[in-house]
Amino acid sequence: MAEKITARSVDYSQWYIDIVLNAKLADYSPVKGCMVIRPRGYAIWERLRGELDRRFKETGHQNAYFPMFIPMSFLQKEAEHVEGFSPELAVVTHGGGEKLEEPLVVRPTSETIIWSKYRDWIQSWRDLPLLYNQWANVVRWEKRTRLFLRTAEFLWQEGHTAHETKAEAEAETAQMLEVYRKFAEEYLCLPVIAGRKSDSEKFAGAVETYSIEAMMQDKKALQAGTSHFLGQNFAKAFDVQYQTREGSLDYVWASSWGVSTRLIGAIIMTHSDDKGLVLPPSLAQDELVIVPIFKSDNKASVMEYANKAFGLFKAEGLRVVIDSDDSQSPGWKFAEWEMRGVPIRVEAGPKDVASASVVMVRRDSGEKVQVKLEEAPAMAKELLKRMQKELLEKARTFREANTKDVRNMDDILAFYGKEIVAKNQPADDGESHEGTSEAKGGFARGLWCGSRDCEARLKAELKVTIRNLPSGMQDNCSGACCLCGASAKHMAIFARSY
Amino acid sequence: MAEKITARSVDYSQWYIDIVLNAKLADYSPVKGCMVIRPRGYAIWERLRGELDRRFKETGHQNAYFPMFIPMSFLQKEAEHVEGFSPELAVVTHGGGEKLEEPLVVRPTSETIIWSKYRDWIQSWRDLPLLYNQWANVVRWEKRTRLFLRTAEFLWQEGHTAHETKAEAEAETAQMLEVYRKFAEEYLCLPVIAGRKSDSEKFAGAVETYSIEAMMQDKKALQAGTSHFLGQNFAKAFDVQYQTREGSLDYVWASSWGVSTRLIGAIIMTHSDDKGLVLPPSLAQDELVIVPIFKSDNKASVMEYANKAFGLFKAEGLRVVIDSDDSQSPGWKFAEWEMRGVPIRVEAGPKDVASASVVMVRRDSGEKVQVKLEEAPAMAKELLKRMQKELLEKARTFREANTKDVRNMDDILAFYGKEIVAKNQPADDGESHEGTSEAKGGFARGLWCGSRDCEARLKAELKVTIRNLPSGMQDNCSGACCLCGASAKHMAIFARSY
Known about the structure:
2 copies of one chain form a homodimer. The first copy, chain A, has helices at 12-22, 39-58, 72-75, 79-85, 111-121, 166-186, 233-237, 262-271, 299-315, 330-340, 350-355, 376-401, 409-416, 452-462; strands at residues 26-28, 35-37, 62-63, 69-71, 90-95, 98-106, 130-139, 153-163, 193-196, 208-215, 221-231, 241-243, 249-251, 253-260, 288-292, 320-322, 344-348, 357-362, 368-372, 403-405, 443-448, 465-470, 490-495. By secondary structure, chain A is α+β, with helices and mostly antiparallel strands. In chain A, a hairpin with a 5-residue loop joins strand 10 (208-215) and strand 11. Chain A is globular and about 85 Å long.
C-alpha cells in the first residue's frame, strides 16, 4: 500500500523525498551520495531523453561516446576549469592491481577529453563544425545530496561543438538554449526563464553561461539547463587550430551545453501534490490506468468490459494498463495510481457496464467525465492534451504570482523576510533540508549594477542569488541597482535556489 | 580521401584496425586501453541498442540504473566473483579532495550493487520476479586491448533478474540466450552457436554460463553474448530471502546476461571486406547514398534529378543521403561510401536522367541493377531485404565450410596446424596482433570427456579452447573424448578465440 506522504505545507523537503521513494522513482545507494534510479524513474528519463535526442538530431547533432577517465593533467590545462572542478573530483589511483602512473579523474564534464581528440580531428575549416553530443554518467563529489537534484553520480547529456567563427559558436549557444527552453515548456510543462548567468555563476572555463530557470512549488529556483559559449578557451588549452578559408591558422570556437537527471527532480517539484506524483502526459509511461470495480458476483462481466475498453484505447495508440489485481480494493488502487502519477484513471464498474460508458478522472485537476465507451479513446486524447497544456499554464501562473518587481533593498527584504535564513542551516545527516516551512519570496525582478560585491552581499545575507539576466529584458536597464543604488546595467532575476 | 586499407590476406589484425579508424567508427583515447566511439560507430550502437531494448521490453523487462561505484567489500561477499574480477578493477581512492574510508570499485559488472538493493526490495513472493536491465558503461582493466573487441571501458547492457524458483531462473537464462541468438542472426546477420560454457570458462559467481559464439573471417571464435544462471549465490552473499507462497523463507534465484560494444567488432569482422565496412542494412544509419555524376555543363539537370530521387526514397521511409559535394570526383565518392559501408549506392548521371532510371549497386555483392526511377524505392527495399538475408547466409556458409568434426588429437592437430602457435605471441605495444597470416583451423566439433585437464592441455598447446557445448547436440554423446580418448560426456565446439 502507498505510504503516507508528508504534506507540502508541513515539510516541503520531506514531501519531495516521500514522493521519490514511495512512487519508486529512485532510492538511496550503498555509496553515499549516489542514487539508484528505479524502473519508474528511469522510464521518465527514457521518454525525456528520447524526445530531447530527437530535437538534437533535428538540429544537426550527432551522438558519440568519449571515455569516462580523464588524465588529471588534462583538467589543469584550463586554469578556471581545474579550479572550478577540483573540489568535486573522484580520482582513480589504481587499475588492474597496480598504482597508475598518473591519477585518472572520473569525468565531472568532458570538455578536456573531447578537446584533446578534437585536436586530432580538426585540421581545416572543412572539418568544421563538429556538432557532437554525448549521453553519459558523470561524477561530482557532493557533500550534501538529494535524490535527482544533486547526486555524486548523475546521468546527463553534454553537447560539445566546434566552429570556425565566434559568431557561429555564439549562435549555437543561443540555439541550444532555445532548444532547452522549448523542450522544457512543451514537453516537461516547465515554464522557464532563459537568460545569461552573472560572471560569478558562470561555468568554469566558459566566456558566457546561459541558463533556463524554473520555479518550484516552494518558490525556489532550479537551474534546469545550461548552454555555454566557451570562446577559444579549450581550443587554446588543447592547441586546436584550424586552417581558415583564407589559409591562415586560427583557434577553433566552442560551445557546450547540458541537462541532467536533475530535470526529473524539477518535474516532480513543479507538478506533484500531496497525493503523489503528477506527470505531464508526455512523460508518463502509462497514460491511462483502467481500474475495474467488481464484486465476486459481477467480476466476469466487469472484467470483460474492462478488457474491451483496454483494447479500444490500445487500438488508438494510447499507453494504457489495466489493474486487475483482485487482492486490493478499488479505493486502494485509486490511491496507488495517484501516487504513481498516471494522468488518467478510467473507472469501469457494473453501472458503467450497464450504461456502456466509463468514468475518466484527471490526475492533476480531479476533473471527472463520464463518456460512452466508444467515445472514450477520443476523450482520453482530449483530456491528455488539455492536461499537458494546463500543467504548463498552472506552473506559469504560480510563477507569475510569486514574482515581484523590486526597486531597492527594502523591497527585497520585505519579499524574502530576513528571518528565514536561520532555518536554512545545513542538516548534519548529509541530506539537505532547506527550510521546513513554506518559504517566503520567490523570483524578484530588479535592476543590477553588475557588481560582484552586491551579488556576494545578497547571497551572504539572504541566501538569494542572481539566477540569470533574462533574455529580452536587457534593453532598457537605466535606473538604480536594487541592491546598492548605483547606476544599473542589467535586469536580473533573484531567487533562492536548489 | 579514404586511406588505403590493409588486405585481410596480408594482415588481418591490421585490416580490422584500418577499417575501424578509416571508417571513423572509433579512435584511441589518451587513456591507454579506453576508446572513443565516433558518431558513425555510435550510430551503429544506437540502432543495435534500440532493437535489443525493444526485444527486452517485449519479454517483460524494465530498465533501471544503478550506481557505477561499488564498495570494495561488496565484491568480496561472493568468493568466486571477487577472485574473477580482482585483477581487472579500477579503484577510486579519493573523492572531493579527501581519501575515502573505503575504496570504491568502478563496476566491472553490477551483480553486487544490484543484489544489495534487491535485499531492500524483495520481501515476499509477491515482489517477484524482478526483471531489470541496465544500459551502462563498465570498466575491466585490460593489458591488451583492441578497439571495440576488448577495451578497459566499454558500453553494455546487463540484465539482472530475481525469481521465486530455480526452474524460473533457469527458464529466464535460457530465454535470454535465445533472445540474443535470434537478435544476432536476424538483426546483426551473425550466425551463432548457442550453448553452455565449460566450468572453467564460466562467469565468476555463476552456476552455469551460456554463450552465443560467432566465427570471424579469420576463423577465430568471438563470444558475442552470455547468459548466466546464478543459482542462489548472490542472494546468499547479500542475504536476499523472501517469504514463499507456503510461508517459509527461501533465498531468491537469479540470472544475469549481457552483450556489449564488442558486438560492433564482431559485425565488422564478420561482414566487411578489403574495401571497407560492410553493414547489415538493419544497422546502417543511411541505407542508401545517391551519388550524382555530373560535369559543369549538366550539373543543374543531374542535381535536380538526384534530388527528385532523394525525395522518392525518403517518401517511402528509406534512410537516404545525397552526396552533392562538388570538390570530389564520383570515383572518390564511390570509394568513400564503400569504406563507410552504406548498403546501396545509387548512381544518377546524365544517361540515367535521359532514360529516367538509376543504377543501384549493392555494397556486399557488387550486384548492379538499373531500374526506372519510379520503381527505385521498391527495388531498394527488395535489395536491402535480400542483403540482410544473404549476409547471414554467407557468414553461415563460411562457418560451415570451416567447421570440422574431429575424432582424436591427430584430427585436431591436422586441423589447426601446430606451427601457428609461434606466430601468436603477444606484441609489445599493448595492442594485440594475433596472427598476421590467415589462420588455419576454425571450429572443431568433437566429443569431450568433461575433464579440465584436457581443456588446459589443449589451450596450452594450441591456444584452442572449448567455446561451448552446443545446445541441441548433447543427447547422444557416447564415444571417445577427442582429446584423451576417455569416455565422452559432451559434444563441444573448439576454436581459437578473441
